[in-house]
Design goal:
The chain is an alpha+beta fold. 58% of the residues lie in helices and 21% in strands. The longest helix has 24 residues, at 85-108.
Length: 197
C-alpha cells in the first residue's frame, strides 16, 4: 500500500510540471518573435539598401503569425455586418497594411533590446495569452499576444502593448466614424492612411 502511495505521489510530481510548463501557444509566439529578431539582427540585412528586403521577411512572418480576418471582424465588432463582401475584403487588406506598418514601426525601432518571454495563460480551451517584455536601457515594455487555435495553428487575434489592446483601440476609432457615416467613409480613411505610409 505504501509503495502504491509513493508511486502515485511520484507520478503526480512528474505530471504537474508538465501542466505548469508553457505549451504550444507559448512556443508558437516565441518562435515567431525570435524569427523577427533574427531578421532584425541579420548582418546581411543591415543598412538602408536592405530595408525593403528586411520588411518583406518580417511581413512574411507576420502573415504566418496574425489572423487578419479575425482581427478585422473583432475590430469592427457589430459594424462588420454593415460592410458588403467586397468592402470586407478591402477592409481586411487595408487594415492589414496599417497593422503591419504599426507593428513594423514598433519592431524596427528595436535594436539590441532584450526580449523576455513571460507566462502563458489559457483564456479558454482554444484561446491563450502569451506575455513578452521588451527590456530597454530605461524601460520595460510589456507586449502581450492573444492567440486562438485555428485549423490546428495558433494565430494572433489581438496584441496588447503597454496595456492597450490593438483591437479595442481601433474599434473605438472605427465605431465613432461608423456612427454617422457609411462603411465607405472608413475605407476612404484607410486608403488615405495606407497611401501616406
Amino acid at each position: 500500500m505504501k509503495r502504491l502511495l509513493v508511486g502515485f505521489i511520484l507520478l503526480v510530481l512528474v505530471i504537474i510540471p508538465l501542466h505548469v510548463r508553457a505549451g504550444v501557444p507559448f512556443d508558437t509566439v516565441k518562435g515567431h518573435v525570435n524569427e523577427v529578431l533574427r531578421v532584425l539582427r541579420d548582418p546581411a540585412l543591415q543598412g538602408d539598401a536592405k530595408e525593403e528586403a528586411k520588411q518583406e521577411k518580417i511581413e512574411a512572418i507576420a502573415d504566418e503569425m496574425f489572423d487578419y480576418v479575425a482581427l478585422s471582424r473583432l475590430t469592427l465588432g457589430r459594424n462588420w455586418k454593415k460592410f458588403n463582401s467586397d468592402q470586407k475584403k478591402e477592409f481586411i487588406q487595408l487594415y492589414r497594411s496599417i497593422l503591419e506598418k504599426a507593428y513594423m514601426d514598433r519592431i524596427l525601432s528595436y535594436t539590441d533590446e532584450e526580449v523576455t518571454f513571460g507566462k502563458e495563460t489559457m483564456l479558454s480551451e482554444k484561446k491563450a495569452e502569451v506575455q513578452t517584455h521588451i527590456i530597454t536601457k530605461s524601460v520595460e515594455i510589456p507586449i502581450f499576444y492573444r492567440v486562438y487555435l485555428k485549423d490546428g495553428k495558433w494565430k494572433v487575434y489581438d496584441v496588447i502593448i503597454e496595456g492597450i489592446s490593438l483591437v479595442k483601440n481601433y474599434r473605438t476609432q472605427f465605431r465613432d466614424i461608423l456612427a454617422n457615416n457609411p462603411p465607405e467613409e472608413v475605407l476612404k480613411i484607410l486608403r488615405n492612411k495606407t497611401e501616406k505610409a
